[in-house]
Amino acid sequence: MSEMVATDPLRFEILGPIRAFRDGRQLDLGPAKQRAVLAVLLLHPGKPVPTHRIVDAVWGDDPPENGTNVVQKYVAGLRRVLDPDRSPRTPGELLALTDGGYVLRVTSLDTEDFRNGVARAAAEHRAGHVEEAARIARAALDIWYGEALAGLGGAVFESARTRLTEERATAWEAWAAIELSRGAFAGLVSELSRLVQEFPLREGLRAQLMIALYRSGRQAEALAAFRDAREYFLDELGAEPGERLQETHQRILRNEPVGGEPSAVSALSPSSPAFVPPDVPAFVPRQVPSPPQPWQATAVPERLFGPRRRGFPWAEVVAATLLPIMTCSVGSWIYFVYAAAQRRARRETITAIGYFAAVLTMITLMAINPSGLDSENFSGQEEAGILLGLFIVVAATVHGAILASHPGDNRQDRARRDLARQFALVDPAGARMAGIGRPDLLRPFDDGGLVDLNHAPPQEIARLRGITPYQAHQISMDRFTNGPYQDYEDLSQRGLLPARTLRGLRPWLICLPTELTTRQAPHQ
């Protein structure tokens, strides 16, 4: 590991909890938000990051009112830690402010050391230096000291963490391929068993485990490993294992030679956010499916996503309508708490709190000066409480019926969108052919309402909240003229939509690479 770590005075690490070292001494990076700001800059080393992107990454859907000033405060704190010899009145060289945003000039970063190490291992393997390739690849993997960006939450960090984890899994497959090529079968079994538990969706690792068992004389265990893999994929995805696993299984059944063939080694796309240089070997988890025929609904198993909800939500509307009446207004707030939990919307949360406060006010009024049981008249406070209760019943009944009849975002849709994004990250070509982000296509699955900015027609983009038909047309024309979008932020950078509108739409946007980009990427 020592040879993989650069000796620069200032070193940054994000392949675990975010850390910084000066001359081997760990620095105190300050409060959590300040570390998160540094993490955003380290995800774009040497490149300007606009302030609004930092705010979106660190604060998500709840940005501070004076976001620019808050970011400036945390940047000033980072400058004091990272560049203590700089005078407060002189411009920062290490962490500078440019027209495009803040730029962190990094000379030593663990992600770059990791990627360079994997590339060196691939070069050594091609040159026939198998032992050296295995040693360098393992040293590169040893740079990881935990979960990438550990402790940082939010959509931006989760996406970056997923990309880095995929890089790590691919690097483990490359290392295992090198070890298999030099005949280290028995010693690989325990390590590959651990990796399969850590990365259960990586078919390449499962195939390598089967090969290591088979070449160690443990054919029965190799076949049992395939049965375990098949049960897992059927239970989790509703799909049979891919061609790589199927072929390995058949060859083991026929007692044919099987090993880490060169054809099983490939490279990640240089255009991918999680880029490993083109000469890095990695097992292909499964081959890209062929384009679907007109009678085929999708290239993705139907059970990968939950069924699409159809029809009017009568049950929810009836429940929302009857609840205030049946509880005599006391339970008027219950449905709105449910709606707030499902939709994660601040408006519904405030509404639920408002109805709950109104119910408490009604109960308080009726308890202040209660009339006796033998009294024929109500006190003034009781009359006010009764009138307030009647108002709550009417308002909550009508409001709940309207809210229930317009389903918003919910937990199930968010889970489906997350699963669809993970599939698109692993297999963008398969996701594109499956119609992820294309609500205009007939599909037997639900991707949670995603809209692909690079492929969805303008009429579907115009259905998004806050986007007019004219803006949707401009988005469609811009992707044709200036090329596909790499990220939803491109809409703001190209002047198509304001950043505030994009923040509200972010959960529903995805940018799948175009077919041309996917084909050309490996040859760049």
UniProtKB/TrEMBL annotation:
**The keyword Secreted belongs to this UniProt entry's keyword annotation:** no
| InterPro entries linked | AfsR-DnrI-RedD_regulator, BTAD, OmpR/PhoB-type_DNA-bd, Sig_transdc_resp-reg_C-effctor, TPR-like_helical_dom_sf, WH-like_DNA-bd_sf
What does the UniProt keyword field contain?
A: DNA-binding, Membrane, Transcription, Transcription regulation, Transmembrane, Transmembrane helix
Record-annotated OmpR/PhoB-type domain positions: 2-106
SUPFAM superfamilies according to UniProt:
C-terminal effector domain of the bipartite response regulators, PsbU/PolX domain-like, TPR-like
Plastid recorded as keyword: no
Superkingdom of origin: Bacteria
For this UniProt entry, which segments traverse the membrane?
A: 317-338, 350-372, 384-404
Write down the PROSITE patterns for this protein, in alphabetical order. OMPR_PHOB
Enumerate the PANTHER family for this protein: TRANSCRIPTIONAL REGULATOR REDD, TRANSCRIPTIONAL REGULATOR REDD-RELATED
Indicate the family of this protein.
Answer: Belongs to the AfsR/DnrI/RedD regulatory family.
By what name is this protein known?
BTAD domain-containing putative transcriptional regulator
